[in-house]
Amino acid sequence: ALTYFFYIFFFQFSVGTYAPVTESNTTCLRCPAGYYSLEKSIHCLNCPAGYITNDNGANCEQCKGGEYSPIESSKLCDDCASGTYSEFEKASTKCLTCQIEEHTSELQSP
Questions:
Q1: What is the end-to-end Cα distance of the chain in Å, rounded?
Q2: CA proximity to 68, closest of 97, 31, 28
Q3: What is the model's pLDDT at position 76?
Q4: Among 6, 22, 34, 104, which lies 20 to 30 A Cα-Cα from 98?
Q5: pLDDT for the residue 6
């Protein structure tokens, strides 16, 4: 076990990768979609609901306006259905119903 922790400490596993805890492990693995990791990680972390991972798994990014992600570890943000919207500056976990005088095209894109 000491050899493994020596390896983790001195060899850098980049963000978005992890090294599972095994004494003989010398390989870093890419975090799967919906998960991210920090440098020198032994496991990946879930992105919370309303977020997805960026391309390299280094961190989680908010779903954009007009999109949502209802569960943690989502791979993609879903589009809001017609007649609904999500706010621009929030990591939305659901879409809201438009009021009668609002139009979704005005609410979904800046």
A1: 52
A2: 97
A3: 92
A4: 34
A5: 47
pTM: 0.72
Backbone φ and ψ for 85, nearest 5 degrees, come out as -155, 165
CB atoms under 10 Å from CB of 94, counted, come to: 13
Structure tokens at 28: 């870093």
Q: What mean pLDDT, rounded, does the chain reach? A: 79
**84-85 and 96-97 strand pairing:** antiparallel
Largest alpha-carbon pair distance within the chain?
Answer: 65
Q: How many residues does the chain have?
A: 110
Quick one: three-class SS letters along the chain? CHHHHHHHHHCCCCCCEECCCCCCCCCCEECCCCEECCCCCCCCEECCCCEEECCCCCCEEECCCCEECCCCCCCCCEECCCCEECCCCCCCCCCEECCCCCCHHHHHCC
